[in-house]
Amino acid sequence: MRVFNSDGSEPEMCGNGVRCFARLIAELENLSGKQSFTIHTGAGLIVPEIQEDGKVRVDMGEPILKASEVPTKLPPNKDQSTVKAKLDVDGLIWNVTCLSMGNPHCVTFSTESNKDLQVDELNLADIGPKFEHHEMFPAQTNTEFVHVFSSNHLKMRVWERGAGATLACGTGACAVVVAAVLEGRAEGSCTVDLPGGPLDIEWREDDNHVYMTGPAEVVFYGSVPL
Ligand SMILES: N[C@H](CCC[C@H](N)C(=O)O)C(=O)O
């Protein structure tokens, strides 16, 4: 599977895209019931599995925490991660945790002056590009702004690299749960509310893999003359 952002850039991976890809294969092959596929992506092999209830569960692999592999130029902690780092965006200091799910993510729950982000009040069109193109992210970044309802219920908005504000970001939802666990804000299994709907995310201790479960439905068929 190859995926392209709306600006034409080609990211390594797309979590929502791979769910839709699995659904399309099942529709085209007229498959029903539980189905599992191995998809080659720019982030390696990804395994989506269509569940009996029709939802798609994706093994998104292991999160990448090493700063140089996110990649970010933020000064790393002793364990080489950038958990609870400080990012200066136009003079405002944001508390961030950066990681990769095959593509780069910067997750924030607060600024130095505001400990509880009211995500619906943020002007993403203003601040999003300042994160996306920040000098600390040599490959740019997807940025997730998160409110914590409880230790297993989060809400996020996302400014995506190469796409802007979107209704949903599967790799972003995975990055949000990993960051929340690392910051001590959440447990490993969470529901993440996105503008486009909820996703169930589980970061499993036994294999260190992140699993994302959510719907995928055909909404139209079309063709694109190239
Ligand atoms: N804009 C992202 C790619 C799409 C990721 C998102 N749509 C998802 O569902 O994971 C990037 O450039 O890394």
TrEMBL record:
Keywords: Amino-acid biosynthesis, Isomerase, Lysine biosynthesis. It catalyses: (2S,6S)-2,6-diaminopimelate = meso-2,6-diaminopimelate. Signal peptide: none annotated. One of its GO terms (biological process) is lysine biosynthetic process via diaminopimelate. One of its GO terms (cellular component) is cytosol. Its EC number is 5.1.1.7. Belongs to the diaminopimelate epimerase family. This is diaminopimelate epimerase.
